[in-house]
Write a structure and sequence with these properties.
By secondary structure, this protein is α/β, with parallel strands linked by helices. It contains twelve helices and twelve strands. Strands 2-4-5-7-6 form a five-stranded mixed sheet. A five-stranded parallel sheet has the order 9-8-10-11-12, with helices on both faces.
Length: about 400
């Protein structure tokens, strides 16, 4: 009995220690999350204030705007990583399969990280022969490459070098990203793809991030039936990440749709109703759609929008979801209850910061044809409006 009591006491102490460790890890992660989300806001807010208060020449203004854009994208990346981890944990990660040209995917990812490399005078060398295609989701594949390239740039000091190569190895296509950066401690290398694990999580660390990117990359690679590995000789000796994906054979390629770049659409003459309760967002949407030739009508509430739909001839509506008094779901249900000659069948696009899979499905089920995430990507919104106003597809009754 005494031995059993001692055993129970040891188990209890072990469980308490594990709970304490988990709580400390949670607190450390939340503190780091707060820091990482706030850090990009500093240059965004600082440069925005300076642009309002001082006169800059064109070159300085463009540099300031580029800094703002780069930090907005960084913050968006942090948010997307958290959402992806949540999807992975619930088994809700979605992959749209098609025949994909990896050269196009890699070049798109390179375009995204090039400005960050230029800012550090880092040379990016690429070797991308056209040697075949893979079956995959072009957006998720670009996310894989972009994560690896942005990590390489982040951990490589000024005037360093990053190499990316594409080659065929047996029946697989291999992507290799090599850098001359800080390297990876051999003791940490086995944990490099684990979520929330970072080699340096202290407040004195030189490099930011949540420790989620590589965990997401591994999940995405495995979802494409591929493998990923990391190598490093140690501190200050650089690192190499290798991704291998199954190569499509000729028969498989013929049965898969092509992923080709599309020409930029125009919205000349299209009348768009914008429903957005936030003034800044409303003015931004009106300005950017007008630049593409659309006639933008904007209102601040769903009630105003219902009046406009019945009073004016409109081609498409773009509606926020989270609004006071009447949200975007209830609003569209009321629109769809109108007769066709009163606008009941108008094409509708949800523009929202609610971007979970269940949020998107809820928007589509209540009558929206498309869902576009905030922060708004200009090209994505323009393409969505163009698609809904240049289609013969039947609208919901």
């Amino acid at each position: 009995a005494e031995q059993e009591r001692e055993q129970l006491l040891l188990q209890e102490q072990s469980a308490r220690a594990e709970a304490d460790r988990a709580n400390r890890a949670k607190d450390e992660f939340l503190a780091m999350l707060s820091h990482e989300l706030r850090t990009p806001l500093n240059p965004i807010l600082g440069w925005a204030q300076l642009l309002q208060r001082r006169k800059f020449d064109q070159t300085e203004a463009m540099q300031a705007l580029a800094t703002i854009e780069r930090n907005v994208k960084l913050q968006e990346r942090l948010i997307d990583e958290m959402l992806d981890i949540a999807k992975i944990a619930r088994g809700k990660l979605h992959i749209d399969l098609a025949s994909v040209d990896l050269v196009f995917v890699i070049e798109s990812a390179l375009d995204t990280v090039r400005s960050a490399a230029v800012a550090k005078s880092i040379l990016i060398y690429s070797e991308l022969p056209h040697i075949g295609r893979v079956l995959g989701d072009s957006v998720r594949l670009q996310q894989i490459v972009w994560n690896l390239l942005s990590n390489a740039v982040k951990f490589t000091p000024n005037h360093g070098r990053v190499d990316i190569r594409l080659e065929q190895v047996g029946h697989q296509l291999q992507i290799t990203v090599t850098d001359t950066g800080k390297g990876i401690n051999p003791a940490f290398l086995p944990h490099i793809f684990e979520a929330f694990r970072q080699e340096d999580a202290s407040t004195t660390r030189k490099h930011g991030g949540l420790g989620l990117g590589l965990a997401i990359v591994r999940t995405l690679v495995e979802a494409h039936e591929g493998t990923i590995s990391a190598e490093s000789k140690g501190d200050a000796q650089g690192a190499m990440f290798t991704v291998r994906l199954p190569l499509l054979d000729a028969e498989q390629e013929r049965g898969q749709p092509e992923c080709l770049p599309k020409p930029e659409p125009q919205l000349t003459g299209i009348r768009v109703l914008i429903i957005e309760d936030d003034l800044d967002h409303r003015e931004l949407l009106s300005a950017l759609l007008t630049k593409y030739g659309a006639e933008a009508v904007s209102v601040s509430s769903a009630a105003e929008a219902l009046d406009c739909i019945q009073a004016f001839q409109l081609d498409v509506l773009v509606s926020d979801i989270g609004m006071p008094e009447m949200d975007g779901y209830t609003f569209l249900e009321q629109v769809r209850s109108l007769p066709p000659d009163k606008g009941g069948q108008i094409p509708a696009i949800a523009l929202s910061g609610y971007v979970r899979e269940e949020d998107i499905q809820r928007a589509l089920s209540c009558g929206y044809q498309q869902h576009v995430n905030k922060p708004v990507r200009i090209d994505q919104l323009v393409e969505a409006i163009h698609a809904q106003t240049h289609t013969d597809a039947p609208l919901p009754e």
